[in-house]
């Protein structure tokens, strides 16, 4: 495990008990539900799912409502402990997305929400995703997109780290923010087909009231007509069928 991964692990171990305060309450729940629905819409339901960067199991729990079963993986033991408490019938493992501890062709679908930007070697993660997916399996990733609104986030996070603010994600990890074309190229290089990349989520949970409420109301318009203003990218694809 490299220094960057150790820093991410330590941070999320420290905030594991308060993680749901950010993503499973009020604005955070609205924001997380919205991006989750964008990912769910790209994946088959009722099959075997692998969720990378699973956190406290919020997305796994949502996916299980549609049937099937799910496995979660996260770099943080603290997060895995919280996830196992939430989804007792599911299996969770500690590990990194660049080297997955699963056999070839083990899953029908693979998801990752808000973890891709931490990866120093995204190609390795996508290669591993392809390896563990069965032929025809689907992948959907949501990550922070590159635009004017996100360009100032690294400075804010670095300041928060310097001030020792105990807040989910409030540290500088050298995250990578992607353009639509960069995500398409990464998926294509690994061999995924049926690649789609679109922007989503204008109502970011960091917005204060009443700005969040206003942003939530105009979010559908922004995503359709002014997508560049949306914070996140949702990228999806499919592993080719055998013989293709």
Tell me about this structure.
The chain is α/β, with parallel strands linked by helices. It has a single domain (about 5-200, about 225-240), classed as Rossmann fold. It has nine helices and seven strands. The chain has a seven-stranded mixed β-sheet with strand order 3-2-1-4-5-7-6, with helices on both faces. Strand 1 (about 50), helix 4 and strand 2 form a beta-alpha-beta unit. Helix 6 (about 120-130) packs across helix 8 (about 180-190). The longest helix has 15 residues, at about 25-40. It is globular and about 50 Å long. The relative contact order is 0.16. The mean pLDDT is about 90.
Low-confidence stretches: none
Described by the principal axes of the CA atoms, the overall outline is globular
Residue fraction in strands: 15-25%
Number of helices: 9
Keyphrases for this structure?
244 residues; alpha/beta; Rossmann fold; 7-stranded mixed sheet; globular
Sum this structure up briefly.
The chain has 244 residues and is of the alpha/beta class.
SSE blueprint and pairings:
Layout: H1 3-15, H2 19-23, H3 26-40, E1 48-52, H4 58-64, E2 69-74, H5 77-86, E3 91-94, E4 107-113, H6 122-132, E5 133-144, H7 153-162, H8 180-190, E6 193-200, H9 211-225, E7 232-238
Parallel strand pairs: 1-2, 1-4, 2-3, 4-5
Antiparallel strand pairs: 5-7, 6-7
Helix pairs in contact: 6-8
């Amino acid at each position: 495990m490299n220094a960057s991964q150790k820093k991410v692990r330590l941070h999320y171990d420290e905030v594991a008990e308060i993680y749901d305060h950010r993503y499973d309450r009020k604005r955070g729940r609205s924001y997380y539900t919205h991006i989750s629905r964008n990912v769910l819409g790209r994946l088959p339901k009722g099959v075997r799912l692998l969720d990378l960067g699973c956190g406290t199991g919020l997305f796994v729990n949502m996916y299980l409502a549609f049937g099937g079963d799910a496995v979660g993986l996260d770099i943080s033991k603290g997060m895995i402990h919280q996830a196992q408490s939430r989804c007792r019938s599911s299996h969770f493992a500690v590990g990194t997305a660049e080297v997955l501890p699963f056999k070839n062709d083990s899953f029908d679908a693979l998801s990752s929400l808000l973890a891709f930007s931490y990866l120093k070697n995204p190609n390795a993660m996508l290669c591993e995703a392809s390896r563990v997916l069965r032929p025809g399996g689907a992948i959907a990733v949501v990550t922070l997109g590159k635009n004017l609104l996100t360009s100032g986030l690294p400075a804010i996070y670095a300041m928060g780290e310097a001030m020792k603010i105990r807040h989910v994600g409030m540290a500088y990890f050298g995250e990578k923010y992607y353009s639509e074309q960069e995500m398409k190229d990464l998926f294509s290089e690994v061999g995924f087909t049926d690649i789609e990349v679109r922007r989503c989520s204008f109502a970011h949970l960091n917005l204060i009231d009443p700005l969040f409420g206003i942003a939530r109301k105009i979010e559908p318009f922004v995503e359709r007509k002014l997508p560049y203003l949306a914070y996140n990218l949702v990228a999806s694809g499919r592993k080719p069928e055998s013989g293709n």
